[in-house]
């Protein structure tokens, strides 16, 4: 696997590799949100992506980049849901066995999807340490190739293709792009694509107050853990990695915190006004813009809606 930060050429190659397997998701606009935010918003709808999330891009790029030797004993990863689905989906496409470690409190909709792609699930308690320990045990037992959910340059390059498409499909120059941050795979890929394909565009992160590690890392210049973890945005619970953090530190303008109440309000707005299903983690970018709209007045803003895998039996509104 690559040990160098993705270049422009790396991201272009990743896009070419995954394009036959993914949707080129639409970029949507909304006069309601433009008025609400006093800006012009362009929504990259990765909630309409294969597996219902942008993670399909990184999972496919990582697995399609593996050799037959690396695939012969299968692949393994840990994830609360969307990366788990991505690896299960991609492994099924190439005929490889997938061993997925999921926290025992993962959303049922995501568990069922992973099962439907034919992966073998092992559950663990929901801590980063327990996830990694369980994956290590599986790797030792099976010889499967581990694909980290975000701290992996092939994954980062795959995630970067979403912003590459956004920049290509919005005819006007984007002043700002906002993406949510958990482990930083999407955010670091977003920052790299902005740097290579639209260098004047600034990148901001949205982060839940209940998983506020990236903002601390950004301020202290070292990887931090959140002081407490409690948020509805289940896809953003993990902290940054040693591959994602340096990219974010160098190329992201700021990390903007949002409350769960703001996330839920943004999610509901998206359902009601744009008629699209977006999960809590996917609404964080919009929540960050609404909370900080004075800073973005008059700007053209790309908004990454990262996923739409919602447990419909547990809607927060």
From TrEMBL:
This is L-threo-3-hydroxyaspartate ammonia-lyase. Coiled coil: none annotated. PANTHER family: SERINE / THREONINE RACEMASE FAMILY MEMBER, SERINE RACEMASE. It is an enzyme of class 4 (lyase). The keyword tRNA processing does not apply. One of its GO terms (molecular function) is threo-3-hydroxyaspartate ammonia-lyase activity. Its EC number is 4.3.1.16. It comes from Dyadobacter linearis.
